[in-house]
Every structure is written in structure tokens, then in C-alpha cells.
């Protein structure tokens, strides 16, 4: 049974003016990011395809791995259906075959977005059979999608894990469903005046409202630009506006070693460097930064700046919590400031030396402090996650 979400009557705040304003932001970002290669021409070429086109390519590989043709013959509880789902999630880069790593869903350790799937797989029994029945019914169109979404989001199944639920539906039909990373997408919707809360709101009603907004954005973009705009393109449009670096006041994005440098990123980089320098100076009682024998640091000022820049190139995901981090000036509330990027020593008994620095959320850095080793703190976080999954199952 296939449901047409476009026909569902739901209130939406998508307007022509909002999309037009968003498109100006979108185009400015791509023009600054594209440099000499140019900005935006369409969704199938240039910088937008290079940076966001992986979603469609991952979808194609994942569908091949699901191999749905014989699912009628697979028995729920055998583990074969879940094995294929896991294979469709854990897509590793294979340059020889032209396969890129699946970055649509954070599936690699220590932040396994599909951990509940793995737990049910390993547990076996009735829950495995039930999960495989739900998946088979979804992909073979045997029951209403709303009903299956509700079943899968129950705490005894996958829970309210929006990224995982969105990915599972995305694999069913790229033309009707999209993945969900709540923070960036929610910010993007706000920017174009189409506000919708996504964080902690995983439900069929919320997902349907989100898909409807994207559908209307796609239609309006197509009308305003004269281009073909798919649902996944509207997803990229909102994601770029909500998550990509913005040009500075002069409309520029500077590049250093492939990294995008904007005012917010520059401020965050400088703050972390100065914080480390001050910490080292206060600890040593010296004005010089280089103090190898005391394991304070093994880097000069210039080397430290370059190393922090290298760490920032790795992305915005907190190494301890898996949360998305903000750069200076980006948080829109006091709560979001807890997610500012900060530099943390992996082993607090060692100084700010190469291999011992990682970027984490400020709140995680504060609570870890000097009390715990990196391994112990991660173990404590996992214990909290485990209790949360069992008690509230409210993952965002």
C-alpha cells in the first residue's frame, strides 16, 4: 500500500518569499564555496552535486544490498532481513568499485545510530521476528506506512530515533522519503520561514509535515528557477542553508587546506588556540609555549594553529557525544551554546600534544573535566544512553 503524502491536508508555512530568500542564501553559500569552479547552476552538477549528491548514490548502493526481489521468501526471525538492512547501512568506501562511505547515517563507532538494530539482531527471538515483519511489510507495501512508522518507533523496537527511522524510509523510495538529521534541517526551515520542530519529535505526523514542506519547497524552487527539483534536492537545499558555513560580511569564504573558513569558524579556531595557549602558560608559569619535557605541548604557536585547523577539517561531530557542534556566533539560544566546539585532551594526564587533542561539545568537555579518562567518560555516556533507551527511548 503506497500513500501519497502530497495529498495529505496539513498546514504549511512555505511561502514564495521565504523560498526566494532562502535561495539567495543558498546561492551565496555555493558561489563562495565553489570559488573558481563557480556556484549553482542545477542540482546535478557542480559543488552541490559533489558535496550532496552522495545521498542519491548511497541510496542506489543500499537498495542493491537490500535485494528486495526475494523478500517474500524470507522468514521473519531468520535474521536474513535484518542482515540485509545492516549491510545497507554499513556501507564502507570501496574506491575500486566506485562506492563511497555511507554518510547519510552515522553508523560507525562509537556513535552507532543503528545500535538498536544490532541489539535486536544479536538478541534474536520474538523481537527480531517482529522487526523483520515490520521491515518486510514496509518494503513490500503490505501495510500502511503510518502504522509501520508508529510500530517501529515504539521503545521495544527502534525507538524515537529520527535519523534511523528516516533512513529506513528513505531506502524505500527516494522520491517520497528523505533522511532526517534534525538539527541542521530544523535550522534551515527556520531560515526560510517554514518552521517545524524536528528535534525529539520523531513521529509519523511530524515526518509527514516535514515531507510536505520539502515537497512544497521543491515545487516553489522549480517554479522560481525553471529547474528540475526532486524531493532530495529540496532536502539538500534546506540542509545547505541550515548547516553549511556562511560567507563572511564581505561575502567571502576563505579556504585553507580544503577547509571552509568563515567568520564563525575563524572565531572558533582562534578561541580554541588562545584557550590552549593560556592554559599552557598558566600551568607552566612561563610565557613560552614550547615545554616538551613537562608534556604541556610539543607544538609552537604556528604548529598548534595548524593542528587545530586539521581537527576542524574532520567535521562538526563531537568526538565524545556524537552531537553536532556550533561555531562561535551560530548558537541562537543559551541552550545551543552548550554545543559550542571546544578542544579537549583525550588523556588529561598528558598535555596538548599531537594525538591527544580532540574537538568536543563544551558541555561534554566541562563534565569530563579532569575527573575521567576519555575511555571511562565514553563508557559513562554509553551507560546513560542505555538507561535512556530503556526508560524513555527518546533519541533525537
Low-confidence stretches: 1-9, 254-261, 286-295
Q: Average pLDDT, to the nearest integer?
A: 84
Radius of gyration: 23 Å
Please give the share of residues in helix: 40-55%
Number of helices: 15
Helix-strand string: HHHHHHHHHHHEEHHEEHH
The number of distinct structural domains comes to: 2
| Class per helix and strand makeup | mainly alpha
Q: For the largest sheet, list the strands in their spatial order.
A: 1-2
Strand content: under 5%
Biggest sheet features:
2 strands, antiparallel
Shape designation? globular
Describe this structure in words.
The chain has 396 residues and is mainly alpha-helical. It folds into 2 domains: 13-243, no CATH class; 254-391, Herpes Virus-1. It contains 15 helices and 4 strands. The protein has helices at residues 16-34, 46-52, 54-66, 80-89, 115-123, 125-139, 145-152, 162-172, 182-191, 204-225, 231-243, 263-284, 301-313, 362-368, 374-391, and strands spanning 254-256, 259-261, 341-345, 357-361. Strands 1-2 form a two-stranded antiparallel ribbon. Strands 3-4 form a two-stranded antiparallel ribbon. Helix 3 runs antiparallel to helix 4 (80-89) and helix 10 crosses helix 11. The longest helix has 22 residues, at 204-225. The protein is globular, with a radius of gyration of 23 Å. Mean pLDDT is 84; it is low at 1-9, 254-261 and 286-295.
